[in-house]
Design goal:
The protein is an alpha+beta fold and 274 residues long. The protein has helices at residues 21-29, 66-72, 86-94, 116-123, 142-152, and strands at residues 2-4, 32-34, 56-58, 63-64, 82-84, 95-98, 109-111, 129-130, 139-140, 157-160, 166-171, 176-181, 187-192, 202-208, 217-225, 231-237, 239-240, 251-253, 263-273.
Length: 274
């Protein structure tokens, strides 16, 4: 937990131009310190909700949020039974707390107040994601998911290069393939997640399954070819896997595209756009 230091002993003002750059940098770094704090003390003493300014200190010793303060204050009372706890408010306003996925490797510190924590943790690449295999209850961050797929489900890794088509053969009941870029080691998964088992339609899409997001936007082009001469294709941006699809764009392959052995030839083309 990081707490920003403020206040302290007053010092005589000096001309910034006379202060060495190295000293200024050290003073700026010293504005933050790391401390351990039990977060339950930042809960309202009545409703147990998270305290956010304004915070009130009651004469009986507990602190309360704004809603509880209003409920406890008699409208006829001329003597207040509480005071604003400005010191605790400053602590709350200066807090930055680690992402809840820090145990999985995330090093981000986020402001205690506001929506930064929720927004970050929703898309944090270190958050545990469910396995691509529907019947499997395993959860892990993206980087560990590929290891799980190859070790537990015996999924083969297909190496490819960006801008170079990769040709694969997929069985009707194969739900996924792991693709690894030889350029940067980024892992992707080609999968049929919403296949219609009653009609044997397959809905293919590609997602990124690496621990960190690629710095550039990646697109995929899928081309499915039938042994009868038909062809289907789809171009789509590649999203980071977060446990479920955020896109509704899929390559829908009907059952008559598969050969007698239940296989289909597919071309996977991954490319990068600045």
């Amino acid at each position: 937990m990081r707490i920003k230091r403020c206040g302290g002993n007053k010092r005589k003002k000096s001309d910034p131009s006379s202060v060495p750059i190295e000293k200024m940098e050290l003073e700026a770094a010293a504005e933050w310190t790391t401390a351990r704090l039990k977060l339950h003390i930042l809960r309202c003493g009545l409703c147990n909700g998270r305290l956010t300014p304004p915070v009130y200190q009651f004469e009986k010793g507990f602190v309360a949020c704004h809603k509880c303060q209003k409920a406890l204050t008699p409208s006829s009372s001329s003597t207040p039974v509480y005071i604003r706890n400005h010191s605790l408010e400053k602590v709350i306003e200066s807090l930055s707390i680690p992402c809840s996925h820090s145990t999985h490797g995330c090093n981000e510190y986020l402001p205690y107040l506001g929506s930064s924590i929720a927004n970050h943790e929703k898309d944090c690449s270190y958050a545990p994601r469910r396995c691509f295999v529907k019947e499997c209850a395993f959860k892990a961050p993206n980087g560990a998911l590929v290891q799980h797929l190859t070790a537990e489900h015996r999924i083969k890794i297909h190496n490819f290069s960006y801008d170079v088509p990769l040709r694969v053969s997929i069985g009707r009941h194969e739900s996924l393939l792991v693709l690894r870029a030889s350029n940067d080691g980024v892992d992707f998964v080609l999968l049929d997640y919403f296949g219609d088992s009653s009609k044997h339609y397959n809905n293919f899409s590609v997602v990124c399954c690496s621990q960190s997001r690629p710095s550039k936007k990646i697109f995929s082009k899928l081309v499915a070819r039938s042994d009868k001469g038909g062809e289907l294709s789809l171009k789509a941006p590649v999203e980071q896997w977060n446990g479920f699809f955020r896109t509704t764009v899929f390559l829908v392959v009907p059952p008559y595209f598969y050969d007698r052995d239940g296989k289909i030839d597919m071309e996977v083309y991954m490319y990068v756009e600045d």
